[in-house]
Amino acid sequence: MNRFLHGHATHPDWRIALALAAAQIEAQRHAPGHAAAPTLGWVYLTDAFAPHTEALLGELRQRWPGVEWVGATGIGIAAAGVEYFDEPALALMLTDLAPAHFRVFSGARPLTGFAAHSANVHADPSAADLAELIHDMSARTATGYLFGGLASAPSRLLHIAGNALAGGLSGVAFDRSVALVSRVTQGCQPVGPQRAVTAAERNVITALDGEPALDCLLRDIGLQGVEPRAALPRLRQVLVGLSDAGDAAESVAPREDASTRSAFDAIARHSSTARAFGADTRVRHLIGLDPARRGIAIADTAEPGMRLAFCARHVEAARRDLMRICAEVREEVETEDLSQPSALALKDAPSAAIGAAAVSGIAGAIYVSCSGRGGAHFGATSAELAIVRHALGDVPLVGFFAAGEIARRHLYGYTGVLTVFRRTGDDRS
Questions:
Q1: What are phi and psi for residue 77, nearest 5 degrees?
Q2: I want to staple 254 with a disulfide (CB 3.0 to 4.6 A). Which of 56, 77, 275, 414 is the partner?
């Protein structure tokens, strides 16, 4: 697998934006070690270009005949070191992966007769039974590993698999010869201990660790004894980190025992007692209270045996965790025997040093981040993608800011999913 081709541009006219990105790509095709005859491409568009998606796809087919296209619209899109928000923009990436090693699929193009090892997926957030679609697609791959996200836009939501699609799920599956390294980075930090769900009905949790769930919530955020109505301003800042019973061991990774002072104060002080969520934790909104039953309502289905920790968004924690997963990816690509099949895993390992040099073992990368993390959330325009670029170097990268992030069989929120394709064999230069 040669180094991917990539280009990105912003312009009010989609034709000019495409021409500018295409010029970047054509210049790369003549460089040694780059894909010369592309077969698969990714296209991500900000929602300003959504009405022109079909025409744009037609132009892509004319420029690169025989290339299969996948992608999505986003409220923002990402390229190597750059984020585009609130402006018309597109990002393209192409690879010369042999057609026998991948298969583009959608509801109209079933994934049959192909031994899928992993898959890059895009979906419509309004699709019925979205969680079931994701679980079903995960079960169709040998590793169970999916990576991608939900299309996001204030107007027209589209995902792409050959054609522009609305509803359902689509993407591209890869066989076992395509080596990947993928990690999830969390954007929230626990503000209380991890608890067991001991009584729940659908999305209403009435007991945690055998105690009333609402009482646990108020205690964990330092408002024990306060009436729920008076606590509402603080509760609007609270989210819920949920994990399955089997994933509980890695869902919250403590560095030390939690402090007894106010959880929000602990976060603000960046204390050494801070903990971090593991990759299996899905952050969900706290959507209501049930004072009569001393329960809480969350934006997901909960079952007894699941684990839960209350949490809050935290920029510094998000920055540190992004640096950590970038270091992990870089270390694995640089040290693992590239002739072996990739071990697709989401794990929490100690951070390694981050260097500025490009990682030669990376052919290309896809980064899907939550739309709530984009823009100036990391402190400056394009700061999130600048962290990734500093860690991995100037490698081909595209992605988008999603309405939900997909990794393995889970749908996440407030996270980033970084996936790199490893260069293998003699094509490394």
A1: -130, 165
A2: 275
